Task: inverse folding
């Protein structure tokens, strides 16, 4: 069963920022929806 969970997370597509569409450099299962640039961090 654990192997299936690991495979699920490994196969998720890259998360995209909801504001600019750039790939978010976070883990896919996190709750954030914006990249650092749109959040004002960089």
Result:
């Amino acid at each position: 069963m654990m192997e299936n969970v690991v495979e699920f997370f490994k196969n998720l597509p890259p998360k995209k920022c909801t504001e600019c569409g750039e790939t978010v450099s976070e883990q896919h299962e996190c709750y954030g929806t914006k990249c650092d640039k749109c959040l004002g961090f960089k």
Summary: DSSP finds two helices and no strands in the chain. The CA atoms of residues 27 and 35 lie 12 Å apart. The chain has a mean pLDDT of 82.
